[in-house]
What does this fold into?
Amino acid sequence: MDQDRPREVRIWLRPLARLAHIYFAVSRGMTLGVRAACFDEQGRVFLVRHSYLPGWHFPGGGVDRRETALEGLVRELREEGNLQLTKPPLLVQVYYNPGTSKRDHVVFFRCDAVRQERPKVADLEIAAAQFFPLDDLPADATPATRRRLAELAGTVKPDTFW
It folds into this structure.
């Protein structure tokens, strides 16, 4: 997967992603992203591994100009996982994400009974994508991913920082 990509590709993707964040911070003032905990009918959660970031994350990304958070969510789920919503998503929280920039916020949704139209094939952005049982998450699932799942399960108090 990510290790299969030529080293030259992996080397330039990370600085390119950083430049994109800088551009959005300057051009937009505040940046807004969406992410979602997407569960299938078996209760498994869908996670993605980006080619330019370590670990497994919830699918999501930036909300484009003239796009609502919901429209951005639907677009990102389709792009990153070939996922379709079968029920309206539930807004969980809006988090401040100072790790990305001092002006970044993440709108977090819960999506139940999502359907995958077809398996996601690795591409330039997404190295891997799949459903995982909650009791068998990948070892390198990000701390934020694990915190959000614990919040959804009610085992920890919801935070306001991503």
